[in-house]
Design a protein that fits this description.
Blueprint: H1 3-9, H2 50-62, E1 67-71, H3 74-82, E2 90-94, H4 99-109, E3 115-119, H5 125-128, E4 135-141, H6 153-162, E5 166-170, H7 175-178, E6 188-192, E7 206-210, H8 213-226, H9 232-242, H10 245-265, E8 269-273, H11 283-289, E9 296-301, H12 306-313, E10 320-321, E11 331-333, H13 345-350, E12 357-361, H14 367-379
Parallel strand pairs: 2-3, 2-4, 4-5, 5-6, 10-11
Antiparallel strand pairs: 1-7, 6-7, 8-9, 9-12, 11-12
């Protein structure tokens, strides 16, 4: 089954009672049992719900995995994955990552005795020197948020396997339309389904997908025991969103390329971060492990003035100033004060998140309108 067919059919069957083509919303908390333990596979909806099960099976198929698990948010998925570890364990993480992930690592789990090492992973040689007897996990985003750095998943997998580490790849920016980390050796793929997978800015949810049965059993235990699960209505919405993932991502990529090239030529723009450029660091790796380069772009304004970035993000019309990304509508954001405000300024700036940095989530509108919108906003600087 090819990808576009998977998005529409994988994990889903017509309702056996009515023949409904769409997976029903099983809005129920509990299920009838004939006698204790004698039921139809469902006991209580925290543990499992048929709508959620259909989504979890669909996600597993899209990532070429065997086991899919959904959580109440992307951070709930992060929370459960890190709970695989114990006090004294250490994690090597990319230093350019979503601010919420950084916050839960440093403000929650460091207080519980887990140590995190943040490093640039664009150069794989930096990683091996951080591995010690306490290291248990490697955490990567690729492309990274917000600097769009590219990390070699296969090389990370080699290091992880040599040292018996769990490799987790946050695939939110790319989606399985662009890359499938499990095929490149990752142990767990994590998503904020809120973003491209749902695709319509109307749901908050997260996911983890893996192939190892023992790892899956541990995650299922945490999912059920800690209870951060999504409801059936949200599961239905993400299932519906995924049905158009392949056509949406194609348009995101097409529009993203045009926007990136426009920004690169604009004299008021300093740096443009988009992995499709041949001079982008690790472009060759992106070309090898991705099918296209996505609709996420970051750029900064000449002079690096905070007020210039604020001027641009406050004066667009079709690019809406808002948190999040990956919806059909284009969004514009200021990472330093919005998505990455939880990261200390000095640490942010070391990774390139300067005060004038702007992040775009390029939507699927007519691209000429988007270019005109950015031009008039940048012209105000």
């Amino acid at each position: 089954m090819k990808f576009g067919t998977k998005t529409i059919h994988a994990g889903q069957k017509a309702d056996p009672t009515t023949g409904a083509i769409m997976t029903p919303i099983y809005q129920t908390s509990t299920y009838i049992q004939n006698k204790p333990g004698d039921h139809k596979g469902y006991e209580y909806s925290r543990t499992a719900n048929p709508t959620r099960t259909a989504l979890e099976n669909n996600l597993a198929a899209l990532e070429n995995g065997k086991f899919g698990l959904c959580f109440g948010s992307g951070l709930a998925a992060v929370d459960s994955i890190i709970k695989l570890l114990s006090p004294g364990d250490e994690v090597i993480s990319t230093n350019d990552l979503y601010g919420g992930t950084y916050r839960i690592f440093t403000k929650v789990f460091e207080g519980l005795g887990i140590k995190f090492h943040f490093t640039g992973m664009d150069n794989i040689d930096k990683i091996s020197s951080l591995v010690n007897e306490n290291t248990k996990m490697v955490w990567a985003e690729t492309p990274t948020n917000p600097m769009l750095n590219i990390i070699d998943i296969q090389a990370l997998s080699n290091i992880s396997k040599e040292n018996n580490l769990i490799l987790v790849v946050d695939n939110t920016f790319a989606t399985p339309y662009l890359q499938t980390p499990l095929d490149l050796g990752a142990d767990i793929v994590m998503h904020s389904l809120t973003k491209y997978m749902g695709g319509h800015s109307d749901v908050v949810m997260g996911a983890a997908i893996c192939n190892d049965e023992k790892l899956a059993e541990k995650l299922y235990f945490l999912q059920n025991s800690c209870g951060a699960v999504p409801g059936p209505q949200d599961s239905f919405l993400v299932l519906r969103g995924i049905k158009t993932l392949h056509v949406r991502m194609q348009r995101h990529c097409e529009n993203g390329k045009i926007i990136a090239e426009f920004l690169q030529k604009n004299p008021k723009v300093n740096n443009v971060y988009w992995p499709g450029f041949e001079n982008h660091t690790n472009h060759d790796i992106a070309k090898k492990q991705m099918n296209d380069y996505g609709g996420m772009i970051s750029f900064d304004i000449v002079g690096n003035k905070l007020e210039d970035a604020v001027t641009v993000v406050s004066n667009t019309h079709f690019f809406t100033l808002a948190e999040s990304l990956g919806g059909v509508e284009s969004l514009i954001g200021h990472p330093a004060s919005m998505t990455h405000a939880a990261i200390p300024k000095e640490e942010r700036e070391r990774t390139g998140v300067v005060d004038s940095l702007i992040r775009l989530s390029v939507g699927i509108e007519d691209v000429d309108d988007l270019v005109s919108d950015l031009k008039q906003a940048i012209d105000k600087v």
